[in-house]
Specification:
Elements: H1 37-45, H2 52-69, H3 72-121
Amino acid sequence: MIKEEFQVTNLGAPQNSGPVMSTVVNIRTEAMVPDHVVWSLFNTIFFNPCCLGFVAFAYSVKSRDRKMVGDVIGAQSYASTAKCLNIWALVLGILLAIGFIVLLAFLIPAASSAVGRSMQGGTGY
């Protein structure tokens, strides 16, 4: 490696006695881009209609990779897609779960009454 050396000359005390102005610049070292990995993993394990949870998990991992590289715009894009897919996976999963419960609530009494009628009638197969 080549090191450059600079020589600084000593200029002495400041020439004017006015107030000293200073500027503070805050630099954020890491951009706060949510990658939704935990939410995507939850949807992948529990609510995975049409594999939306798995696709959301893939986009979340891509968002995390982009954030680690320093590409904030790419990370935000992937995170936005992962968030949208997570919302759809959650809504569809809840609707399917409610539909399954309602279907069972109507199907079990109907099936039990059909079995009861067939047993009373005495007609077998």
